[in-house]
């Protein structure tokens, strides 16, 4: 838990790897995932590094694996359902893997191309068969017959033109020719129009639609096609017709000159189609066998190739020593894992058979280490919520441990419903039970992956919603009378306040808690179920939830301010406790903490007897700033003086917060006693270079730090800029003071969304479920089934999905803006640990 709270303590280590065992050592380190390597060759171009050829080979293998996966998916072959995590193969085995992949690629590509050719030939034969079948009706036409073409209005002169008859064309030496084929149905009108414009009546076009859908060879989709037959005069016209057919991507086939030839061609086509079906079936079987063989090992190869590529990428980050026999690498790693790192290097050296072992040395540095939080499957989701806002600086307090509780709780305050929370918790519990199911983990649906990765967050949100639903006593907009109501109607008749005729003469009656026996005591858990029947239920819940939102908001923000003390103490900035933390806490508690005090005081002091005389908290809070405490009756004796005192403390804390830190730092850097103090600091801290490094790692100061001053001989001290520090603190002061007001108001979203969820649930029950329950006939039982189905669908889609998403986003904003900005520093770029 301490690692999750503040992150792992990191150190910079130097690895000395023998050239022969470097590959195996890096492989062992990669399996552990404990180190982040630094680039020791920043000036060397990527393509000029030593292992660039090996990385190119890995990229080539990745390309082949991508092709294999696409073909396996196209063949609809399921991959083996098992989690594989093979180790990286030895360098001598890499060529064997590449040769095997290339052999599979060639074999699979050749079979696939043969299959495509066979399919294309089969499609051509089928089209040819349809063409012969459809054009059989065109054979009876004679060449002298008038063309049966549609006359278009844009060619009015066609009616006057005469077409040369057959004898005249023969005298000119022209020959009658035929062109037949298939064209897409959408192109036939433009095709016909183009033929007429170019050939000017020297062609006769006949066409008919094919009844069946034919596959498009380019897209593979079924399309409607038209069979056409073009009769033309002369070779020149024939050349023009062929060019037009090419432009419209027509499929042309030879046209038989006689019926006998036609019958012979049809019989031959039937035989060839049958043979092609047989060959294509065998080709598909063989292709499936090859794909199945590839699918058995493809995932293993994918992981191995990724690991090989990662190893060579890391090796490119290393540098050689002067003898070129040893690789030197620098890594960031957790301090507690240094022994594990050493064992990994020993294992790698032993596997490679190196005579000289590789070793690791810890080296001092003034660089800021990367941030590492160790998470498990439960805490990773909450850590991702924090990391989405930004990864904090090294060893800063991590909000994730507190987010595990506060995030689902604030969500549940807005989503409080026992029934809805139970459904959500059951759904999340089902995902937790089957979290190792490979089908659920490795889907391509991004929305499902989001739900599955956040299953523990959803589980916690559901459990907390059940709790807040019990507090609100709300289950699908209905209250549960588990312990019996604390209110009694009978006492109103016993005291003769109500009479039987009052029940018929009044639509609403008011229970008086001042009468003995009417109010027996508070409900043991949550809100009394009688409020579900009250006409002023919404007014009561408004007041209750609004005050509750303010109380939770002030507590949440105060907790964030208190957490900042851990950062101040850890980074040895004790002056921030007095100049930053104390003014912030006083400003928040003197104003809004006092508001919470008044809420609790009014709840505890004023009972039902004197509730009519209870003053308004809002009026008192406004008068507190206006210094008008005498205008209304006080809540308690001495209220006006206390309020003036609290306002004065809050106002005085603002200049302290604004000027305290800049003036103190200016005094520290420019005071007369600065030299002696830091020389004493140097004498104490220079006993050990290791201790000096550890001091620097903990002593992260804004501008220049003690550690920077103590090592002035190594690094040039940065000059202190008072204006820059003052501007930074001024922005922080304005943001914090105005933020306290806006952030407190922002927590009212807890009240607003809670009421919205309750009202939506009540409207859904009244307009859907109540309609089915009111039908008291036998048919009403059958009518209740679709009504319940509609109610369930609307509940899941609106209340469980849309409303939960809204509450999730609002809870996320409350943590990012209102809570984390009180102690969580500016986000830095996220360092990835391999």
TrEMBL record:
Is this entry keyworded Coiled coil? Answer: yes
- Family, as annotated: Belongs to the V-ATPase 116 kDa subunit family.
Keywords associated with the record: Coiled coil, Hydrogen ion transport, Ion transport, Membrane, Transmembrane, Transmembrane helix, Transport
Role of this protein: Essential component of the vacuolar proton pump (V-ATPase), a multimeric enzyme that catalyzes the translocation of protons across the membranes. Required for assembly and activity of the V-ATPase.
**Keyword set includes Membrane:** yes
Species name for this entry? Answer: Pleuronectes platessa (European plaice)
Task: Show the coiled coil region(s).
Answer: 94-121
Classification of source organism: Eukaryota, Metazoa, Chordata, Craniata, Vertebrata
One Gene Ontology BP term is: vacuolar acidification
The UniProt entry lists membrane topology as: Multi-pass membrane protein
Annotated GO molecular function terms are:
ATPase binding; proton-transporting ATPase activity, rotational mechanism
Q: Which InterPro entries match?
A: V-ATPase_116kDa_su, V-type_ATPase_116kDa_su_euka
- State which residue ranges cross the membrane: 409-433, 454-472, 548-566, 578-601, 644-667, 779-802
**What is the protein named?**
V-type proton ATPase subunit a
Gene Ontology cellular component annotations, sorted alphabetically: plasma membrane; vacuolar proton-transporting V-type ATPase, V0 domain
Name its cellular compartments.
Membrane
């Amino acid at each position: 838990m301490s690692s999750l709270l503040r992150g792992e303590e990191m150190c910079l280590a130097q690895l000395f790897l023998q050239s022969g065992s470097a590959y195996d050592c890096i492989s062992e380190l990669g399996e552990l995932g404990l180190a982040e390597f630094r680039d020791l060759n920043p000036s060397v171009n990527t393509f000029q590094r030593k292992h660039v050829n090996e990385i190119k080979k890995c990229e080539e293998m990745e390309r082949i694996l991508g092709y294999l996966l696409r073909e396996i998916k196209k063949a609809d072959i399921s991959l083996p359902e098992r989690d594989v995590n093979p180790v990286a193969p030895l360098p001598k085995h890499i060529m064997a893997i590449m040769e095997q992949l290339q052999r599979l690629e060639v074999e699979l590509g050749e079979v696939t191309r043969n299959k495509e050719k066979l399919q294309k030939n089969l499609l051509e034969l089928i089209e040819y068969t349809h063409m012969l079948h459809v054009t059989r009706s065109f054979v009876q036409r004679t060449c002298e017959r008038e063309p049966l073409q549609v006359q278009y209005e844009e060619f009015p002169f066609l009616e006057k033109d005469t077409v040369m008859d057959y004898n005249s064309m023969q005298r000119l030496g022209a020959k009658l020719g035929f062109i037949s084929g298939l064209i897409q149905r959408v192109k036939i009108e433009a095709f016909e129009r183009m033929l007429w414009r170019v050939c000017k009546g020297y062609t006769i076009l006949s066409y008919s639609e094919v009844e069946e859908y034919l596959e498009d060879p380019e897209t593979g989709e079924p399309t409607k096609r038209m069979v056409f037959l073009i009769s033309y005069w002369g070779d020149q016209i024939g050349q023009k017709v062929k060019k037009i057919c090419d432009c419209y991507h027509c499929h042309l086939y030879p046209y038989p000159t006689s019926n006998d030839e036609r019958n012979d061609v049809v019989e031959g086509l039937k035989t060839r189609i049958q043979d092609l079906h047989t060959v294509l079936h065998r080709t598909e079987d063989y292709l499936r066998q090859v794909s199945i063989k590839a699918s058995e090992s493809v995932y293993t190869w994918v992981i191995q190739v990724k690991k090989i590529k990662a190893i060579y990428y890391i090796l490119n980050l290393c540098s050689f020593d002067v003898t070129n026999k040893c690789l030197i690498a620098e890594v960031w790693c957790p301090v507690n894992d240094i022994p594990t790192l050493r064992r990994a290097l020993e294992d790698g050296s032993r596997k490679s058979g190196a005579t000289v072992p590789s070793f690791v040395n810890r080296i001092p540095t003034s660089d800021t280490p990367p941030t590492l939080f160790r998470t498990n499957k439960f805490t990773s989701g909450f850590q991702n919520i924090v990391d989405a806002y930004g990864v904090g600086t090294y060893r800063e307090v991590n909000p994730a441990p507190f987010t595990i509780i506060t995030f689902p709780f604030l969500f549940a305050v807005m989503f409080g419903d026992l029934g809805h929370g139970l459904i959500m918790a059951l759904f999340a519990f089902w995902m937790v039970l089957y979290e190792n199911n490979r089908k659920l983990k490795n889907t391509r649906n991004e929305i499902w992956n989001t739900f599955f990765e956040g299953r523990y967050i959803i589980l916690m949100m559901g459990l907390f919603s059940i709790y807040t639903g019990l507090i609100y006593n709300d289950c699908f907009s209905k209250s549960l009378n588990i312990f019996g109501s604390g209110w009694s109607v009978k006492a109103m008749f016993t005291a003769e306040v109500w009479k039987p005729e009052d029940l018929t003469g009044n639509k609403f009656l008011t229970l008086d808690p001042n009468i003995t026996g009417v109010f027996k005591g508070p409900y043991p858990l949550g809100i009394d179920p009688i409020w579900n029947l009250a006409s002023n239920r919404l007014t009561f819940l408004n007041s209750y939830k609004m005050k509750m939102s303010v109380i939770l908001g002030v507590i949440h923000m105060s907790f964030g301010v208190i957490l900042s003390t851990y950062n101040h103490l850890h980074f040895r900035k004790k002056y921030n406790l007095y100049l930053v933390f104390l003014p912030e806490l006083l400003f928040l508690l003197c104003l809004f903490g006092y508001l919470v005090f008044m809420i609790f005081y009014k709840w505890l002091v004023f009972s039902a007897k004197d509730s009519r005389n209870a003053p308004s908290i809002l009026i008192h809070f406004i008068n507190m700033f206006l210094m008008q405490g005498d205008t209304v009756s006080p809540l308690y004796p001495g209220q006006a003086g206390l309020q003036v005192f609290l306002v004065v403390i809050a106002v005085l804390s603002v200049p302290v917060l604004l000027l305290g830190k800049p003036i103190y730092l200016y005094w520290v850097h420019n005071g007369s006693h600065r030299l002696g103090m830091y020389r004493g600091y140097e004498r104490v801290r220079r006993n050990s270079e290791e201790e000096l490094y550890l001091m620097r790692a903990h002593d992260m100061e804004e501008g220049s730090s003690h550690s920077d001053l103590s090592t002035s001989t190594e690094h040039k001290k940065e000059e202190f800029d008072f204006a820059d520090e003052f501007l930074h603190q001024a922005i922080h002061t304005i943001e914090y003071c105005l933020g306290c007001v806006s952030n407190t108001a922002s927590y009212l979203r807890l009240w607003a969304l809670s009421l919205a969820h309750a009202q939506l649930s009540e409207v859904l029950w009244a307009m859907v479920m109540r309609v089915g329950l009111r039908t008291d006939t036998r048919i009403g039982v059958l009518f209740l089934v679709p009504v319940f189905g509609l109610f369930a669908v609307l509940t899941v889609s609106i209340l469980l999905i849309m409303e939960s998403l809204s509450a999730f986003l609002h809870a996320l904003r409350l943590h990012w803006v209102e809570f984390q900005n009180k102690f969580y520093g500016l986000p830095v770029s996220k360092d990835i640990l391999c």
